Amino acid sequence: MAMIDAFYIFTKGGLLLWSTQLVKVKGNPIDWLIKEVLLEERVGETTAKYDTYSLKWKLLNEMDLFFVVVYQGILQIAYLEGLLSMVAKEFLNQVADGFGNGMNIKHIDFDKAFMEVRRKVDKEQMESKRPKAMRSFADTKKGQEVQKNKEEKGLPASQGKKKGGKSSAGNDEDDDDDEGGDDGEDVQKVADARAKLQGKAAKNGTKKKDEPPAAEEKQPKKGKQGRFWDGEGKYNEKIANSLDFSKNKPGSADDDDAAFEAQKAVFLGDSGDEAEWKKQEDDVESLDSGSDGEEDEGKASEKPGRVGGLFKSLTRSVKNITGGAVLQDEDLDPILASFRTSLMSRNVAADVATKLSDSVRHSLVGKTTARFSSMTSTVKDVLKESMETLLTPKKSVDVLRAALAAKNAGRVYTIVFLGVNGVGKSTNLAKVAYYLKHKGGLDVLICACDTFRAGAVEQLKTHSRCLDVPLFERGYGKDPADIAKNAISHAKNNGHDVVLVDTAGRMQDNEPLMRALAKLVAVNTPDLVLFVGEALVGNDAIDQVTKFNRSLVDMSHDPRNPRGIDGMLLTKYDTVDDKVGAALSMVYVTGQPIVFVGTGQKYTHLRKMQAKEVVRTLLG
Q: Phi/psi class of residue 251: alpha, beta or left (left: φ > 0; alpha: ψ in -120 to 50)?
């Protein structure tokens, strides 16, 4: 028998109906599966890894039951799927009549039936592995075509040797004579062909090939000199001065003040913007919870919005199906195919769109629509629920509340901002500083740990002056981890409440820079690690956030307690219109929430992400 460790049967509500452990299972894989996979709307994946165990499951929608097999090593997918299907069928045959809602069953004796099903599946697997007898040429499709052609031309069928291996002596002699004649002709043809080829080879061999001219020696180009990084002990004062654009520059103090006022006007705006920002509430308008009938669809189409009614187009083809219908794959195929395509057009990564649509399919196949409920309302409810569950954070990440709690506890709250080049880390760090200072009355310190990009410290100096917030900087070319450590110590000694650490932008495949970033996080153990990404990206969002998170975990100084990304900040959110799919992709891949979204250039253009708002934008 194939080695499986355990098998579980439980309801969608979490009630365990039956289980068996053929081998002692370490930990609790079912609790992990429910919390990390099923509650995260990843039902469509059907496989998962937990520690050294592999899990595969089958969802039976008509009874709201999960069948889960736990195993180690490698087993054939066909075997596991056959086992799950046959166990589900046998289980329903035994308990379907008295199942009800799953709460009225006190004991299920399924051990004997399970072992019988397992033996049957193992037997089928062994039979499938047995080699099949080789067919004769006459039984193949080609042989049948040859025989048919001979019959059409009136030629006699080839006799060959009989199955018993017996044939007449006369026939054998005739065959030998015929074969000998044929062989003689074939040998002569082969000899002629070989002679012709040898003649061509000899003729080609006599030709002298022109030797290619000797390559002129080119002097190697002088490559770009790498900048020193990560405090390698080669800090050069000349390098630091070449990157500092704030010293010894021509221009009067009046010019500097005029430039500062211009920058302040760009980031702060007028007093009306600030007053309006202070009045804004964190919550946004919730989704319309009215009926989903045709009347509501007509009203929705009349309302102006930035989405052209994606959901209406998805359900138009099946809107006439009424309650009491059992949903099948053929009913869902057209709507889910359109749903997946529309999600990808809104910047949802292709892999995430496929997995989400598969999850919706698994949740709907076999379901019976409620009485007086249309297919439209049934599919819409599942789509809303799946997306909202996915985007709702597993843990609360309220930055302001956490910072105030740290202040009351007498410690400094630290946030590290990281991400790829050019996404707006420094600008959005300034927005967060403005938010914490004006919403919570906190004393903020900005730490300049981007010692790599020319002008990075000067950019933060401008934000520091506009915000009236102190800046901790040590110039260029020094170790960012050491600068952050000194900044946190400075904040403790001088009564600052929050330290916001700006880091250098780097591509996710640059290992030396990723290692330096992991060192900064490991040495300073910040309270929050925020990944700053653009709302404009699609499939690249998965690659960026996955590799950043993996680098932090793999390069952590303490493998027993690795530190990854705690949340995300999406920039340029106001430029994507209805293409907000990057938010869905990032949350699906990391399982971490989006804490803030940037909606403009001013400091007041920062707000919290709302799951219902994204769902409303994606579905229309």
A: left
Q: Is the pLDDT of residue 219 over 60?
A: no
**Residue keyed to tokens 């180690």:** 72
Alpha helices (H) in 231-309, listed in sequence order? 237-243, 253-268, 271-279, 294-302
Per-residue tokens: 597: 């979204």
Cα dihedral 515, 517, 520, 523 in deg (nearest 10): -40
Q: Which of 50, 61, 56, 90 lies closest to 75 in space, CA to CA?
A: 56
Distance of CA 527 to the CA centre of its chain: 25
What residues are paired with 67 via a beta bridge? 9, 58
**Structure confidence at residue 304 (pLDDT):** 39
Residue 398's alpha-carbon distances to 429, 436, 593, 607, in angstroms, are 16, 11, 11, 12
- 2-to-71, 84, 91, 124, 524 alpha-carbon distances in Å: 10, 14, 20, 12, 49
547, burial (CB in 10 Å: exposed 0-12, middle 13-18, buried 19+)? middle
The residue with tokens 């069948």 is 67
pTM of the model: 0.61
pLDDT tens digits for range 50-68: 888 899 988 887 777 889 9
- The alpha carbon of 70 is separated from its chain's Cα centroid by a whole number of angstroms, namely 24
- What is the rounded distance in angstroms from the CA atom of residue 380 to the CA atom of residue 374? 10
User: Any idea what DSSP says for residue 203?
Assistant: H
Distance CA 74, CA 80 (A): 11
Q: Give the Cα separation of 210 and 194 in Å (integer).
A: 28
Cβ neighbors of 190 (< 8 A, separation 6 or more) are none
Residue 78 has pLDDT above 80, yes or no: yes
Q: Work out the pLDDT band at 291, boundaries 50, 70, 90.
A: very low
Task: State the Cα–Cα distance between residues 98 and 92, nearest whole angstrom.
Answer: 10
Mean pLDDT, all residues of the chain = 75
**Both tokens assigned to 460:** 């933060």
Q: Is pLDDT at 180 greater than 50 in this prediction?
A: no
Amino acid at 173: E
Q: Which helix (H) or strand (E) holds 123?
A: helix 111-129
